[in-house]
Specification:
Amidase signature (AS) enzymes; alpha/beta; 38% helix; 11-stranded mixed beta sheet
Length: 469
């Protein structure tokens, strides 16, 4: 049997904390116990900061009792993908290269979450440097999918997806260079937002690609992602990509009303450009039916082939990753996992011409999508063409050859939201993606929130053998 604390969302927990019905200390202690029970199987955590978390929870409880309530994240537990710097707490990128690395400062996003009163439960498993994975030759094992532990969580924010889906933590931070927030959100059946590039600071986060890296929230619901983004969004002079853009009230924008909104369906991404599982295709069609029933206007649109977006993203990401890791790759090659080496080393063959042409192609693709979005409010497509695959089916060749649908929105830089849109007959989650104009994250989440409210998918949780239902 589950308890009433097992699967609290941020919004639910925050409301109970503010009313005095829930103690942050009790909630934190309960989740630490849950992690101790479930994580030996799921491997979502690279490090549990139990003592630190309890100290923060006691502090939050005392502040709230004294009338110093900071907002909806005050006293709410969260966890971080292990690429976010945490002062006095190891940040290793799941790599031997960073073994023993303990930062002196928090990443900007970590500081903002702490300033909001959130309680850090620990660091979450990631693919090595948010790139190679899943791997079995790293300091810790890969995360397992709570819906079926023989299956892949998606990556690279693998622990973030697993921890939220399993109810070990209501909020997690991921990062996204080619789909690393949305793929684990899809495979783990949660909501994951890749914000507009420049909206959330990347300062203090281990880099993979200077041009494409994006930091963002992962949670059970779109509403929870909005609550997190409210704290995270804002200009940071320490991040050269950071944009000084007005920040709306993201949660207030979740009106549930999408009457008359125009949704462009990039159907060819899953029907032509990828081989798609029939269960995914059926779920996407059903989701479009729900959105139409809510009053949205649905129309197919055509963009460049997915391979154009994916190739552009790969060249930029691989070239920049090689620049970042060049010295260590030359002198500490064996300290990297096989998977990471296999993925990054082809970038050695890339030349300046390849990189510059990819940057030019990116501008063309951005202009193309911007032109389409003049006639539509949001875009709709698949997140992944298949349900979560078996870990045993994974191999290095397929990893390098696969180009995900998610890469399109990393290439353009606009907001992209993955949300659960159904389940297979075997109970595996399926996912759709909503994308939008730059800095129109609020509208993208408004559509996703309306969809969640019109369906029952958020009521379904993984069966964890006594830890869930």
């Amino acid at each position: 049997m589950t308890t009433d604390l097992d699967y609290l969302t941020i919004a639910e927990g925050a409301a109970r904390i503010r009313s005095g019905d829930l103690s942050p200390v009790d909630w934190t202690r309960h989740l630490i116990t849950r992690i101790e029970s479930l994580d030996p199987t799921l491997h979502a955590f690279a490090l549990v900061t139990a003592e630190h978390a309890m100290d923060q929870a006691h502090k939050a409880e005392a502040e709230i009792a004294a009338g110093n309530y900071r907002g909806p994240l005050h006293g709410v537990p969260f966890a971080l993908k292990d690429i976010y710097d945490t002062a006095g707490i190891a940040t290793t990128g799941q790599s031997k290269v960073c073994a023993g690395r303990v930062p002196e400062r928090d990443a900007t996003s970590v500081r903002l979450l702490k300033d909001a009163g959130a309680v850090l439960l620990g660091k979450l498993t990631t693919h090595e440097f948010a790139y190679g994975g899943p791997s079995f030759d790293l300091p810790g094992p890969p995360a397992r999918n709570p819906w079926d532990t023989d299956r892949f969580t998606g990556g690279s924010s693998s622990g973030s997806g697993a921890a939220v889906a399993a109810g070990m933590v209501p909020a997690a931070m991921g990062s996204c260079t080619g789909g690393s927030i949305r793929t684990p959100a899809a495979y783990c059946g949660i909501a994951g937002l890749k914000p507009t590039a420049g909206l959330v600071s990347r300062a203090g986060v281990l880099p993979l690609s200077y041009s494409l890296d994006t930091c963002g929230p992962m949670a059970w619901t779109v509403a929870d992602c909005a609550l997190m983004l409210q704290v995270l969004a804002g200009y940071d002079p320490e991040d050269g990509q950071s944009a000084d853009s007005p920040i709306p009230d993201y949660h207030a924008a979740l009106t549930g009303d999408i009457e008359g909104l125009r949704i462009g369906v990039v159907r060819h991404f899953w029907e032509v450009d990828k081989t798609t599982d029939p269960a995914v295709a059926a779920a996407l069609d059903a989701a479009l039916g729900v959105l139409a029933g809510l009053g949205a206007e649905i129309q197919d649109v055509t963009l460049s082939p997915l391979d154009d977006f994916a190739a552009c993203q790969w060249v930029i990401a691989c070239a920049e990753a090689n620049a970042i890791h060049d010295d260590n790759l030359r002198h500490r090659t064996d300290d990297y996992g096989e998977n990471f080496r296999y993925r990054i080393l082809p970038g050695i063959a890339l030349g300046a011409v390849d990189y510059v042409q990819a940057l030019r192609q990116r501008r063309q693709l951005i202009a193309e999508v911007d032109a389409v979005l003049k006639d539509f409010d949001v875009l709709f497509t698949a997140t992944t063409p298949i349900p979560p695959p078996l870990l045993a089916d994974d191999d290095l060749v397929s990893i390098l050859a696969t180009r995900g649908i998610t890469t399109a929105f990393n290439t353009t830089g606009g907001p992209a939201l993955a949300l659960c849109c159904g389940f297979t007959d075997d109970g595996l989650p399926l996912s759709a993606t909503l994308g939008g104009k730059a800095f129109d994250d609020a509208l993208v989440m408004r559509v996703g929130h309306a969809y969640e409210g019109a369906t029952e998918w958020r009521r379904r949780r993984p069966d964890l053998g006594g830890g869930g239902s």
